């Protein structure tokens, strides 16, 4: 969630006092999360079913299917959550990842979830929606043509938090939802994820300080946390390398698999489609990780 700063100023010339006051108000810096407007064009999902309705809000899954896919198939499925600081963002951020995985035989989904800019929500609702999405996918396995025991959750930045929270946290289930259907994915693919919300070095602790222990994935690792791969740039100004290394160490202390891939001199969002070299490098590593779990076969097909 790198920030872009814009400064709006008016030309300086003789003005009445009230105009000078106005000038001082207008001459401000406005910070906008870069991921807020992140959108990837040129890709089209095959279908967009509604998985959840809250009031007047319908949340959809943007589904990419392998060629000749049938509802009777039993394929692995990946569900991605976009970044944007729990404030903004677009599911299309992960359209390229979805199209690639679909070409490799996995049903791939970019999920919508509620965000502050559109729905005036908090991080709690983001996690609730993430859990709802995983449950809906499992409940509709026969329609989607997927194996409910091969569910991958992925995401970038705050979307990485949502994905990791579905796998680690017990709280934040939607009222009335069938919690007998597990929201815990079978694997995690996390791109510079916000997985530490603690008071010491955790990202955006002030937003979740009243319930941080319940929502911070790094503080809820257990012996059932699914195998995980993490991608991070060494110059990420939001997620320190030490945080990722600590996450990996705690995963391994609980007997869980965690791969950490560090990319020298790269900042936040380095993995996105527009960053061709690092998009390809991280997607190739993701492919190999999923192949090691038996979720796809053969070598990566990136050119």
Distance between the termini: 29 Å
Describe the strand arrangement of the main beta sheet, using strand numbers: 3-4-6-5-7-8-9-10
Largest sheet geometry: 8 strands, mixed
Structural class: alpha/beta
Spell out the helices and strands N to C: EHEEEEHEHHHEHEHHEHEH
Beta fraction: 15-25%
Global morphology:
globular
* Mean pLDDT value: 89
Q: Which consecutive residue ranges, at least 5 long each, have pLDDT under 50?
A: 1-37
- The CATH architecture classification of the largest domain is 3-Layer(aba) Sandwich
According to CATH, what is the topology of the largest domain?
Rossmann fold
CATH class of the largest domain: Alpha Beta
Rg value = 20 Å
Using DSSP, what is the number of strands?
10
Number of domains: 2
Provide the CATH superfamily of the largest domain: Alpha/Beta hydrolase fold, catalytic domain
Q: Number of helical runs?
A: 10
What is the helical fraction, as a range of percent? 25-40%
In a nutshell, what does this entry contain?
The chain is an alpha/beta fold and 303 residues long. 31% of the residues lie in helices and 21% in strands.
What does this structure look like?
- GO terms for molecular function: hydrolase activity.
- Belongs to the 'GDXG' lipolytic enzyme family.
- Keywords: Hydrolase.
- Residues 79-271 form the Alpha/beta hydrolase fold-3 domain.
- Pfam families: Abhydrolase_3.
- There is one protein chain.
- With 303 residues, the protein is of the alpha/beta class.
- It folds into two domains: 1-34, no CATH class; 38-292, Rossmann fold (3-Layer(aba) Sandwich), CATH 3.40.50.1820.
- 31% of the residues lie in helices and 21% in strands.
- The protein is built from ten helices and ten strands.
- It has helices spanning 17-26, 95-103, 116-119, 123-139, 141-144, 158-168, 205-208, 212-215, 241-253, 276-292; strands at 3-7, 29-33, 50-54, 57-64, 75-81, 107-111, 146-156, 187-191, 228-233, 258-263.
- An eight-stranded mixed β-sheet has the order 3-4-6-5-7-8-9-10, with helices on both faces. The protein has a two-stranded antiparallel sheet with strand order 1-2.
- Helix 6 (158-168) links the parallel strand 7 and strand 8 (187-191).
- The two termini are 29 Å apart.
- The model is unreliable at 1-37 (pLDDT under 50).
